[in-house]
Amino acid sequence: MSDESANAGPMSTAPAGVVIEGLHKSFGEVEVLKGIDMSVEPGQVVCLIGASGSGKSTLLRCVNRLEDPDAGSITVGEFDATHADVNLDAMRQHIGMVFQQFNLFPHLSVLENCTITPRRVLKHSREKAEAEALHQLDLVGLKHLAQRRPAQLSGGQQQRVAIARALTMQPNLMLFDEPTSALDPETVGEVLSIMRDLARAGMTMLVVTHEMGFAREVADRVVFLDQGLVVEEGPAEQVIGAPTQPRTQDFLRRVLNPLGK
Question: Sign (positive/negative) of CA torsion 228, 231, 237, 242?
Answer without folding.
Answer: negative
